[in-house]
Amino acid sequence: MAAISESSSTESLISSVQESVDRIKSLYPAVNEEETPLPKCWSQKDKFTCIGLSQNNLRVHYKGIGKAAKDAASVRATHPIPASCGIYYFEIKIISKGRDGYMGIGLSAQGVNMNRLPGWDKNSFGYHGDDGHSFCSSGSGQPYGPTFTTGDVIGCCVNMIDHTCFYTKNGINLGVAFTDLPINTLSLYPTVGLQTPGEVVEANFGQLPFIFDIEDYMKEWHMKTKLTIERFPVNDKKGEWQTALQRIVSTYLVHYGYCATAEAFSKSTGQSFDEDLASVKNRQRIQKLVLAGRMGEAIETAQELYPGLLEHNLNLLFMLKCRQFIEMVNGTDSEVRGPAIRSPKSQGSNRSSPNMSPVHHSLNSARNTPVGSRGSSPNRPIGVKGYCSGSTSQSSQINNQNSNCDLKPINEEEMNAANIAMNGKDIPVIESDDVDMCDNVIDDGKHVTNGTSLCVNGFSKNGDVCNNSEEMDIDNHSGKRHLCGGSQGAIEKMLVFGRELKAMHNQLKAQYGHNDPNEKMLQDAFSLVAYSDPWSSPMGYQLDPVQREKVCASLNSSILESYGLPKQPPLELVIAHSTECMKLMSKAAIGSCAFASVADYLR
């Protein structure tokens, strides 16, 4: 029984601590405590000797003789108030007023004398209980509020936005006590001071609910900040501001291949494209394949549509191949899903090997060979595939750089299209049955509009998880998922692919030296096969469809860079710039950053 009681008590304590942490976090969501910890208790070091601490360093009691002002003693909190709080609040409960009730509650900077009550010295501010006066860095106080005694709860609120401070008594706002606080130049600490025997106070830094409704006060300032942003005056007499906003939206749509929406938006606003629409559709094709987990087809399509791109970016190629290995484990890559799900065009080629890519032709020159117009090799017309077809051994694929390759014959129509592209005109859209361009259907049966399917990354539009049998093979009787979809042949393919991927990594390492990201990428991918159920393993996060998005973004950005276009859309740069500005505002102690979250405007 004693053991059960002790266990129950421990669980209750853990639950109470977690509630305190959650409550404080909800009060100050903009604070990064790894950089700027919040004050949560009194400091055992930053106090005068006559101060005693107990109750997890929240309760303060006076231990001196208390005959004169020289016997006063104060204690500061462990950390200063972060500017990213915007508004900070704490409450002090008077457990006992002691002999005379000479108590002070307020703020002070680091270095202020602790042998004094708060407010008496420079960079110190306090509200005293014996006379109700406020003291602003001076020994003479000003009438402010009522006195306080045993049983009262005094709150202190610091407004980092307008640099003011007010106090509350038993939940009632007493009005502004201090203005023009030096928040931009000084870090202020919650501080309490005691002077006569028997005085005991206890702090609540947010661990428990406050008596005063500070959340309502914060909401008021959140709305004020929001209105300040929304009502910021913009001179748009010539329409330049509106045009700039439209341009930002247009480039975002084009960047991510939302071609139908981009076309409609262009017609509505008159915005032109920096990229040919055909290229946008080509990128969209590739993105759909990557997001569907069909990495082998995505790599093949990228090499066909953008010759030279992967040859001159071997780290990107290696990333794609590592992701292909992961999709093989998942049973989603075309190479292990069987011929039924591959298009006739795809079935005729063997591209599962990492070394069937142009990597073994270009290792010696990848860093020095310039990328030609629109991402192609200078001496290679678009549409010509110079890779080997068929199966070769691992060693011959990796080491024989002079191996003979069968060039795919090209007809007159393809050559004309290639020459048009080389002359800077329209880029041909290579049609196939793998993925339709804009508003059609990927051949897995999902209807797609503007590159977004009804089931994206494993989730449906209503937020439910999609149980698509093509995403993973599941034993309907046991509910157990199988490696490579449960096919022995697919597992053998995966193992061969893994050996060749390792050989590719070794050659890259020998050619260019050690690469930490590539090393980790390969180790993480290979670690999946060490588990009987990789989906439930510590490394199983790699099999989450959301992990495809990073690979997709890297490939998409590289294609755009090869065209001389930004690898990030201006909209994302604006968001990143605004987010960084919020961090700089916090460092500069500009409190409004707490109520100007960029995320609020992205929902």
UniProtKB/TrEMBL annotation:
Protein name: RANBP9_10
InterPro entries: B30.2/SPRY, B30.2/SPRY_sf, ConA-like_dom_sf, CRA_dom, CTLH/CRA, CTLH_C, LisH, SPRY_dom
PANTHER family: RAN BINDING PROTEIN 9-RELATED
CDD domains: SPRY_RanBP9_10 (cd12909)
Domain (CTLH) ranges: 279-336
Chain intervals with Polar residues compositional bias: 344-379
Family of the protein in this entry: Belongs to the RANBP9/10 family.
